[in-house]
Amino acid sequence: MISRKRFIRFLGSIPFVGAIGAGYMRFAEPNWYEVTEKTVSIGRFRTPLRVLHLSDFHASESVSLESIEKAIDISLGLGGDIAFLTGDFITGKLSNENEYQRILKKLSSLVRTYACIGNHDGGKWSGLNHGYKDFSKVRTLLEDSGVKLLFNEEERVEVSGKTLSLVGLGDLWSGDTKPKGILNTVRSRDEAVIVLSHNPDSKELLKKYDWDLMCCGHTHGGQFVIPLIGFRPFLPVIDKSFPEGLLSWGKRHVHISRGIGNLHGLRFNCRPEISILNVV
Ligand SMILES: [Fe+2]
After folding, report:
1. 86 alpha carbon to ligand 1 midpoint, in Å?
2. Any idea what the CATH number is for the domain that residue 104 is in?
């Protein structure tokens, strides 16, 4: 049986442990990037296409440009053939555009970089949630940074001797995911079709189309994962079975990045992620 003295000592330690935990969630884990490497087989490439997938930078008072630059500096050493940025470049309003451009240019000047828009970047949802009513400012940021934004558009990309069809879609929560006329129900060419779509729930809208791999963000992995049971109380998606990682969906694959930034400056048991996907 625990003694009264021990019990009082335990109670006295709670604020101390709480302060350490809060410090860890605010200052340590959000900047503790994990580099992950996965292989996805879509059967159309003889040699792997090395994709760098980053997402959800969320530049804001909670996520500094310095921390985003640190993530990009780590990414530059990973040797991607092509880079995908899957939305949520900001939270709220954009500031210090010139510095943000300089940081994004470090990536785009080394590797061809494509992006799609997230719900925080501007649009119907963002306009109702302290952000921009349209994504023109983020579009300008990306264009001036050498990042090609695909908004319900396809681009055929030649990379490492391969041609792939790359499709970037608008955001689901803003009602901007419009695949009709962009994706085909039956592909017309023997090329891999890769989709950039911020919110993984958008896969339901893409069910009838012919594609191989979809790269997403949005979930942040939940930002908080309860140890041992793996419960993610703040997962902002309908399909809770797709929180993060590389998942099969029928014959297709979905890759969900936990993202670089966060909301409210906190992460617990859910480190920010820099992903390499070897597409073979
Ligand atoms: Fe996000």
Report:
1. 9
2. 3.60.21.10
